[in-house]
Amino acid sequence: MSVDKAKESAAIAAVNEHINHNVHVIGVGSGSTIIPAVKRIAEMVEKDKFDLICVPTSLQARELILSHGLKLGSLVEYQELDVAIDGADEVDEQFNCIKGGGGCQTQEKLVAICAKKFIVVADEKKWSTNLGDKWKKGVPIEVLPIAYKITKKEIEKQLGGEVIVREGAGKVGPVITDQGNFILDWKFDSSKVFNWSDVNQQLKLIPGVVETGLFINMISKAYFGNNDGNVQVKVNSAIVSA
Ligand SMILES: O=C[C@H](O)[C@H](O)[C@H](O)COP(=O)(O)O
Hints:
Helices cover 29% and strands 23% of the residues. The model has no long low-confidence stretch (mean pLDDT 96). The chain is built from six helices and 14 strands. The chain has helices at 5-18, 34-48, 59-67, 105-114, 148-159, 196-204; strands at 25-28, 53-56, 71-72, 83-86, 90-91, 97-98, 118-123, 139-143, 162-165, 182-187, 209-212, 214-215, 221-225, 231-235. By secondary structure, the chain is α/β, with parallel strands linked by helices. Helix 1 crosses helix 2 (34-48). The strands form three sheets. A seven-stranded mixed β-sheet has the order 3-2-1-4-7-13-14, with helices on both faces. Strands 9-10-8-11 form a four-stranded antiparallel β-sheet. It is globular, with a radius of gyration of 17 Å. Bound molecules: ribose-5-phosphate (R5P). Ribose-5-phosphate binds at residues 29-33, 86-89, 99-105, 108.
């Protein structure tokens, strides 16, 4: 995966602020923006020689942790993380976000909910007024393979829009997640106003749904980089006190 300047700047700024010798267990997100973040974490650990356990959110994250010589942990061993750093596909002004463009939202949400602080790193194009303004691929939803036709039909019936079964490259047929499930992308009508918390709950009540890519007001801080290397930091005052 190639890493552009905008993503790299956001990742480095977030790591510089949140990783230090007081931090012992962290969550490591998935995607392309997390790559420079892990590189920077490894540089800091190497230089300052502190003990850091990294809990991955995917097979990709696990490989990144191992290939940078960092210590690997798991949610079975650690349910309380000092901080989790992850990418996002879109973040709205209420700090709701869509994740799962790479199909990793289920483990990402587990890690995020265990973290005292959930930090998002992204390029500036991911920040929007309303979800769907910029991210046009819909909300990723992990479903049990046996249920994908039922869940597709039910989502379209209850919430409208169109549900696409995600297919990959390199093999015909559906994308298989790290948990062995399928991904549906719910292309919602972005001209409609949604209460994303209600939508998330409604989706989760549909039998066969494992997890949604809607992260409702979980972000503490978001770092958005641009191609000049500047980073805008957005603080969620609903979570972080001044
Ligand atoms: O499933 C993938 C994850 O949710 C990623 O964190 C998200 O898609 C953002 O990825 P990227 O950093 O590559 O834009």
